[in-house]
Amino acid sequence: MKKFFATIAVMAVCFNAIADEGMWLPVLISERIQDMQSKGCRLNAEDIYSVNQACLKDAVVLFGSGCTGELVSDQGLILTNHHCGYSFIQKHSSVEHDYLRDGFWAMNNSQELPNPGLTVRFLERMEDVTAVVLKGYKSKMTEEQREKLIQKNSGKLIEQITKGQNGIKASVEALYYGNQYFLFVFKEYRDVRLVGAPPSSIGKFGGETDNWMWPRHTGDFSIFRIYADENNEPADYDPTNRPYRPKRSLTISLKGVQEGDFTFVYGCPGSTQEYVHSEAVRYIQDISDPEKIALRTTRLEIMKKYMSQSQAVRIQYSSKYAGVANAWKKWQGEEKGLRKNNIVPAKQEYEARFEKWARGTEYSWITEMLYNMYQLRNPLFRAYEYYNETVRSIEKMRIASGRGIDMKDYYQPIDEEIFVAMMSAFDKALDDKYKPGFFLDLREKYGSMEALKDAVFADDELAAELASALEREYWNGIVPQLDEMNQNIKLLYRKYMRGQMAFEPDKAFYPDANLTLRVAYGHVEGYRPADAVYYRHVSTLRGIIEKDNPDIFDYNIPQELRDIYARGGYEDQPVCFLATNHTTGGNSGSPVLNADGELIGINFDRVWEGTMSDLVFDPEICRNISLDVRYIIFIIKEIGHAGYLLDEMRFN
User: Fold this and answer.
1) What is the DSSP string of 541-609?
2) 646 to 71, 96, 102, 630: CA distances (angstroms)
3) Most exposed residue of 334, 486, 533, 549, measured as fewest CB within 10 angstroms of its CB?
4) Is the dihedral of CA 189, 194, 200, 202 positive or negative?
5) CB neighbours of 368 closer than 8 A, spacing ≥ 6?
6) Alpha-carbon span 86 to 40, nearest angstrom
7) What are the phi and psi torsion angles at 50 (to 5°)?
């Protein structure tokens, strides 16, 4: 066992990563630093990650439950994306004070707005705890016994670290499908206040039309501040709390970027599946993505129709619409990228070579076993996805099942139309064996989804009965079977992962993303999305003016921005730039740093053609999109008229 995990550690830090691919653990960055330096980095490993001194990790936070942010002042000031702060901006908005439309700028600390439930987490340290987590494991144990042992050992470890400690949180995460386990210790702050946000016509400029596309011209940022008690420790919101004093904040570079410059992203990527079987990719490409795209297209069209008719409804549903549309657009690019790059055949060819190598070893036939398991799992997983995209997306069903929504942001006509569309799709797509008997009885009784909708929305008791029946089928019928199959697949992947590492001993294997802190590095570079087309690495304010159209909501910029441009001198004001850093969801809001560790931008997206990078990274086409920090400064000063915030920041 010890010998195997030593081998894993060596394999995880080999130097021959493909181009700029990889999401690397900061604690192991000393094993990558030589490669980083060869590509232009001027930092050492201790500058990036250290438990002995303040370093760059101390300026990076997990923002909320799925984004990243960075400290840019010694008074707790955080930059993150506008879309990461969007739901909080929306909660503070009303028809009278429409901060989504008009933006929000606190002109002093007393005007900053509290956000109940919003937290930020700093990583204190991470360490390999595989030996501790697997203490007592015997090879004869069943998978269930192994999991119970892991939970027991992990629970003890976490309790030892967090018990009686204010704000200290910890988690044990499985890497390489459970071949290795890492402990992550965080410090969580609970008083985080909104400081500033540009109007959505800047922060979401281009809207869903430009989402995932290049060139982008979106000023996707918002500003928050962390507050702490008098001892600089985590505290619940209190007017007497003080701005947090960080161990480290970032210096902002105003020198700009040039093609070929070294860059790295320090953030919390959410989820990737770089080492999965071809059948998993085929299911995503041929079934999952196309079906989910179609379902969300319908929901978006319904929401958009009502949002265009009422400002109040637009405010209510703006955050919901953005949440539905983000993955919808991403899946379209992912499906296209998988097909265009022939990823399924490429995976199949790799698996054939692997099996030829594996004959006579413990890894024989593992790819065939995975294929067979996916054949069993996929119909059930399709039902699971349909429940989530249809039944569980209907707000009336959420309310009736007790999962709840914020009624301030509820508009029944939208929900009624979505009910009819989604329940019709649910009924048409799935075999009756995946549906509860109560639903089948109602279907027969009412004869149409329109009639069933009328009954359900008129009778809360009936709605509760239907929601309960559907939830029982989901949780008691589908989920347990799916969990069992996924456990079997996970067990096969644990072995297949070891086999892949043995098959390619000279390859650098980074662990899949799991919303823990990672470093991804590369360089500024444009790309070629199609024959005879080359996209430059930078977009400018000139492009915003070219897109500006008062008649199109996504492109209607503030008049003040038009006036500034008309005065001249800002035509080449940088807005966004491209780089080859390997990112995914969760990296939203991540600091993009230059060779000296200075902030040059905020990561907020990927190019549409490269969204398959969650499954396969193609260095020729995969690019992350970042907001140039100089545009942030421009907007704070010229649009927000909040130049006092710049006084807190350090510039180079």
Assistant:
1) HHHHHHH--TTSGGG---HHHHHHHHTSS-TT-EEEEEE-----TT-TT-EEE-TTS-EEEEEEEE-GG
2) 13, 29, 21, 12
3) 533
4) negative
5) 355
6) 35
7) -155, 145
Task: Find, among 76, 41, 43, the residue nearest to 61 by Cα.
Answer: 76
* 128 in Cβ contact with 182 (< 8 Å): yes
Q: Give 57's pLDDT tier (boundaries 50, 70, 90).
A: very high
Q: Is the pLDDT of residue 564 over 90?
A: yes
Nearest to 482 by CA among 373, 320, 588: 373
> In the prediction, which pLDDT does 403 show?
85
Q: What is the pLDDT confidence band of residue 1, given thresholds at 50, 70 and 90?
A: very low
Structure confidence at residue 6 (pLDDT): 42
Q: Does the pLDDT of residue 360 top 80, yes or no?
A: yes
Number of neighbouring beta carbons within 10 Å of residue 459: 12
pLDDT tens-digit map of 593-651: 999 999 999 999 999 999 999 999 999 999 999 999 999 999 999 999 999 999 999 99
Task: Give the H/E segment covering residue 35.
Answer: helix 33-38
DSSP category for residue 476: I
Contact between 214 and 230 under an 8 Å Cβ cutoff? The reply is no
Instruction: Check if 588 is active-site.
Output: yes
Q: Find the helix or strand (DSSP H, E) in which 300 lies.
A: helix 289-307
CB 499 within 8 A of CB 369: no
Tell me how many degrees the CA angle 419-319-590 measures, rounded to the nearest 5. Answer: 135
Determine if the pTM surpasses 0.85: yes
The answer to whether residues 453 and 415 touch, using CB atoms and an 8 Å cutoff, is no
User: What percent of the chain stands above pLDDT 90?
Assistant: 93
For the stretch 364-419, pLDDT in tens is 999 999 999 999 999 999 999 999 999 999 999 999 988 878 888 999 999 999 99
Annotation says 454 is catalytic: no
Integer Cα distance of 147 and 494 in angstroms:
13
Strand partners, 226: 192
Question: Active-site residue among 278, 588, 613, 626?
Answer: 588
Specify the pLDDT at position 483. Answer: 95
How many CA within 13 A on the CB side of residue 540? Answer: 10
- Looking at 404-478, list the stretches that DSSP marks H as alpha helix, in order from N- to C-terminal side: 412-429, 437-446, 449-458, 460-472
CA distance 309 to 312: 9
First to last CA, the chain: 50
Beta bridge partners of 169: 186
Residues 500 and 509 sit within 8 Å (Cβ to Cβ) = yes
Helix or strand or coil: residue 508? coil
Residue 11 scores a pLDDT above 60: no
The β-bridge partners of 606 are 624
Question: Given 3-state DSSP classes, what are the helix, strand and coil percentages for the chain, each rounded to the nearest 5?
Answer: 50, 15, 35
Phi–psi pair at 567, nearest 5 degrees = -70, -15
Residue 83 annotated as catalytic: yes
Among 643, 548, 614, 520, CA closest to 60: 520
Of 47, 210, 220, 512, which one is the catalytic site residue? 220
Selecting among 83, 217, 277, 582, the annotated active-site residue is 83
